[in-house]
Amino acid sequence: MPVGTIHSSKDTVGVAVVNYPVPVLETKQQVLENAYQIASYVDGVKTGYPGLDLIIFPEYSLQGFHPVKWRDLTTTVPGPETEVLSEACKRNQVWGVFSITGEENPAGGNPFNSLVLINDCGEIVMNYHKINPWVPKEPWYPGDKTMVVEGPKGLKIGATICYDGNYPEIVRDTVMKGAELVVRIQGYMYPSKEQQRMIAQVRAWENLTYFAVANLAGRDMVYSYFGHSSIVNFDGTMLAECGSTPGEVQFALLSLSAIRDARANWTAENHLFNLTHRGYTAAGPLGIAACPYDFYREWVADEKQARFACESLTRTTALPEQEGDGQDLEGAVSVREAKAEASATDSVIAPGLELEEAK
């Protein structure tokens, strides 16, 4: 896609990503004031880019991540903060992606880390809960499903949050639900800047999907965040990328017809079609659809056995320092005996370990 213009068309969706300055907040009043600051970004970016259809803000951009007071800053969806953000979207006739960290958990557990998508009428149309929190530091309760909704001009949008993006399974599942743009909001810090920049391009390429990343920039009480919010084409090439300066905004156009044509007509490098049509040149007419991956078949059939496979390559406890401390594993005398028993019987005794809730 050509870049450089500030308008969009019926065939293109104008997308902006924001290097939002890291907020350090201690009260709900400060959070609400920050919501108005985010809303002012929406106003300003729409003024500068009349073709803006979707604006994306990073993880932790609303409430920050206070190392001690994070629980005091939790809110609800909808809530007073989303009311401010909804009004900004409605006022500017744009869609917006916003972060809620954390959202109160109605089941009474730890809060969720949420991505909220608001349409140009001010309605919340998606509330995605982060499936893979960044353990052991993040205290958020994990979500359990990927989400896709129809966005501006019919573009189908899927959601991921930060550490989610390190797992190819999440993006593939989201794309297989129809996503044409996968959004990744993140609060990623040094030193993993280069890895995360590469991941955005790889996830786009391997899934023939647009990929948009919004990251924090600056420093809070703990980490320094590298920015580099970006918009990636479905062929894995970079359309637009911020630097590391807080407050930077980048804008690009996503063609609806281009991605749909590629998915329908590409042969070589059509990783979506070829996934379930393996070797159709030799095994015609449509190739082989059966899943050849033992681990994924096992994970669906026996999650405990899949867990044991992971533990056999890594460790059996949540934290490395717990390894070998003699904790019982649901009837086994020790970790070592549990491993031996599982190996001998081809079954698994899953560790009954839970991290103490973050204080």
Describe the structure.
- It contains nine helices and 14 strands.
- With 359 residues, the chain is of the alpha/beta class.
- The chain folds into two domains: 12-267, Nitrilase/N-carbamoyl-D-aminoacid amidohydrolase (4-Layer Sandwich); 294-345, no CATH class.
- It has a six-stranded mixed β-sheet. The protein has a six-stranded mixed β-sheet with strand order 6-7-8-9-12-13, with helices on one face.
- A hairpin with a 5-residue loop joins β4 and β5.
- α1 (28-48) packs parallel to α2 (80-92) and α7 packs across α8.
Task: List the SSEs and their pairings.
Layout lengths: L11 E7 L9 H21 L3 E5 L23 H13 L2 E9 L8 E7 L5 E6 L18 E3 L5 E6 L6 H9 L4 E6 L6 H15 L2 E6 L1 E3 L4 E3 L3 E3 L5 E4 L7 E7 H10 L5 H5 L18 H8 L1 H11 L21 H11 L14
